[in-house]
Design goal:
This protein has one domain: fumarase. The longest helix has 12 residues, at 33-44. It has helices at residues 10-15, 33-44, 87-92, 106-114, 127-130, 171-182; strands spanning 2-6, 21-30, 57-59, 97-100, 118-121, 134-141, 150-164. It is 27% helix and 27% strand.
Length: 183
């Protein structure tokens, strides 16, 4: 398992290959549909986004309500393709990585390759387990969005799999090619 630190540097990203298992430590940000819409709108209006995107990782997640004496509630990944229409603009603005579940569109794959970023998968259906890798959590933006507010999460050894690397290699396509070879 490779260890990486957020925010990501281009040198770190370049060393990752589709299929690599990684443990991420550092600060990441949650963001779902409504937060993405607002961030992309700020970029399209040529306004400074309220979150510095350079080198950052966005986790497609809307944590549940935090129980007493807990850092955060359950926080599993949501379907990444819902953010696809906003992702190329965020990558162009410096976003270095995304964490979620599921495939990405051809446009997003192309933008990941163009901007030398990475897309990571994490374990779906394991939100309670994933919350144990979060050491601190606080709302960073858009508090009024409730569970879709942007949260800053300090993570330690957060488990990820590289789904799309900076060269555009896609774990889903690699898996499909291997299946075809076996037939």
């Amino acid at each position: 398992m490779k260890k990486i630190k957020a925010p990501l540097e281009k040198e770190q990203i370049a060393k990752l290959k589709a299929g690599d298992e990684v443990a991420l430590t550092g600060m990441i940000y949650t963001a779902r549909d409504q937060a993405h819409k607002r961030l992309a709108q700020a970029i399209s209006e040529r306004k400074k986004p309220p979150l510095v995107l350079s080198g950052q990782i966005i986790y497609y997640c809307g944590p549940t309500k935090t129980a007493p004496k807990k850092i955060i509630g359950s926080c599993g990944p949501t379907t990444s393709s819902r953010m696809d229409k906003f992702t190329p603009a965020l990558l162009k603005a410096g976003l270095a990585g995304m964490v979620g579940k599921g495939r990405r569109s051809k446009e997003v794959l192309s933008a990941i390759k163009k901007h030398k970023a990475a897309y990571f998968l994490t374990y779906a259906g394991c939100g309670a387990l994933l919350s144990k890798f979060i050491k601190k959590a606080k709302i960073a933006l858009y508090r009024r969005l409730g569970p879709e507010a942007v949260c800053a999460l300090e993570v330690k050894d957060f488990p990820l799999i590289v789904a799309i690397d900076s060269k555009g290699n896609d774990i889903y396509e690699i898996r499909n090619r291997k299946r075809e070879i076996r037939k």
